[in-house]
């Protein structure tokens, strides 16, 4: 078999994707023995994956900020809890706590491993649908508890991944 690009040279390897013959010069061109077409298609696929990852990071950050601001607004205006609307919640620390409670839930959901996979064998024994309602409630409570602490680190991590 001869090289697909240099027909006068004998091939020493084959493209790992399409099986075309490659001479020593073409084999050493890339890290893995691949032809130019296959290498270009692999590079396009890598770029598409990076675009998809960046769009999911932006989506996560937008959802996190939206939920945080909405939760903070609903508490401060008295819509979420039956509290009088006063200037009591006007300090920046209170705003951060309320924002963190709302946005932390989203951040913790992205950070916490799912409890479902750990307990998937006991669903039929423990009550099916009601069991999953309890699991989601526990997951929400855990996310609300640790979300305020995870949120700054998660935002910094997402910004790092976005500009990587």
TrEMBL record:
UniProt keyword terms in alphabetical order: Membrane, Transmembrane, Transmembrane helix
Domain of life, source organism: Bacteria
Transmembrane segments: 57-76, 96-112, 124-151
UniProt keyword annotation of Membrane present: yes
Keyword Transmembrane helix: yes
Name of the molecule in the record: Uncharacterized protein
Originating organism: Maribacter luteus
């Amino acid at each position: 078999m001869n090289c697909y690009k240099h027909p006068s040279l004998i091939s020493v390897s084959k493209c790992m994707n399409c099986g075309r013959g490659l001479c020593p010069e073409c084999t050493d061109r890339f890290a893995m023995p691949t032809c130019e077409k296959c290498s270009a298609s692999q590079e396009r696929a890598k770029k598409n994956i990076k675009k998809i990852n960046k769009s999911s990071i932006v989506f996560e950050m937008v959802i996190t900020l939206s939920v945080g601001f909405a939760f903070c607004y609903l508490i401060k205006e008295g819509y979420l809890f039956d509290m009088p609307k006063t200037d009591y919640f006007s300090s920046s620390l209170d705003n951060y706590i309320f924002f963190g409670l709302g946005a932390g839930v989203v951040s913790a959901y992205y950070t916490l491993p799912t409890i479902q996979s750990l307990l998937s064998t006991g669903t039929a024994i423990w009550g099916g649908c009601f069991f999953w309602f309890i699991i989601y409630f526990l997951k929400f409570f855990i996310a609300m508890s640790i979300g305020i602490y995870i949120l700054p680190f998660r935002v910094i991590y997402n910004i790092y991944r976005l500009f990587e």
